[in-house]
């Protein structure tokens, strides 16, 4: 299998965490010709990353779909807990990380400053952080004592907040949410998370 990814992307990062955590032999490459190239659009008509090419040639874009596929295809080590309620909680935290944190940081960085659009994105981001403050379990990882798919989404999404958003709003948003701040520190102790956050940080520093 081959994963098209970029180290700077908060949407590619969750997939790489899952790959590293499961020690999967998946080739990770940049989109040929760049994200907007005709060559890459022939591979993935959505023109987005990440995109996983399966062994049979099928194309699977979208971060959440990819990590769910990898969990079903390679169930060990487990990244989803037992039980319907526990799994629902993991997926809820995944969605908050993807839609309310990662997506809002991207849109906020692209919005013109001091506009209605930037204010809306900031409000949504703060709402997501506030929800996490309530929902995080107080354990080393988002949904318990072990790494789950929720951490694959949340850890890189939250990593970008001080790096990307803080310079735009002149304040440390995460510091206002102690449970979130603790989670940021403890989640990074997992080797797969640390590896991806190092990749993400190096890409953002360029």
UniProtKB/TrEMBL annotation:
Keyword Isomerase: yes
Domain GST N-terminal: 1-78
UniProt keyword terms in alphabetical order: Isomerase
Domain GST C-terminal: 81-206
GO molecular function: isomerase activity
GO CC entries: cytoplasm
Domain of life: Bacteria
Pfam families: GST_C_2, GST_N_3
Keyword 4Fe-4S found: no
PANTHER family: GLUTATHIONE S-TRANSFERASE OMEGA, PTHR43968
Identification of the protein by name: Maleylacetoacetate isomerase
Organism: Methylovirgula ligni
Source organism phylogeny: Bacteria, Pseudomonadati, Pseudomonadota, Alphaproteobacteria, Hyphomicrobiales
């Amino acid at each position: 299998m081959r994963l098209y990814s970029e180290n700077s992307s908060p949407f590619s990062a969750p997939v790489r965490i899952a790959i590293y955590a499961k020690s999967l032999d998946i080739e990770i490459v940049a989109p040929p010709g760049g994200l907007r190239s005709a060559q890459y659009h022939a591979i993935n008509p959505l023109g987005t990353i990440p995109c996983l090419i399966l062994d049979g040639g099928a194309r699977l874009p979208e971060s959440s779909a990819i990590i769910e596929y990898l969990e079903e295809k390679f169930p060990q080590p487990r990244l989803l807990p037992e039980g319907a309620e526990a799994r629902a909680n993991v997926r809820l935290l995944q969605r908050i990380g993807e839609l309310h944190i990662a997506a809002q940081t991207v849109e906020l960085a692209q919005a013109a400053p001091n506009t209605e659009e930037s204010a809306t994105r900031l409000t949504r981001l703060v709402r997501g952080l506030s929800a996490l403050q309530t929902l995080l379990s107080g354990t080393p990882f988002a949904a318990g004592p072990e790494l789950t798919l929720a951490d694959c989404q949340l850890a890189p999404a939250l990593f970008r907040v001080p790096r990307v958003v803080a310079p735009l709003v002149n304040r440390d948003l995460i510091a206002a949410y102690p449970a979130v701040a603790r989670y940021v520190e403890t989640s990074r102790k997992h080797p797969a998370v640390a590896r991806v956050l190092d990749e993400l940080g190096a890409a953002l520093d360029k």
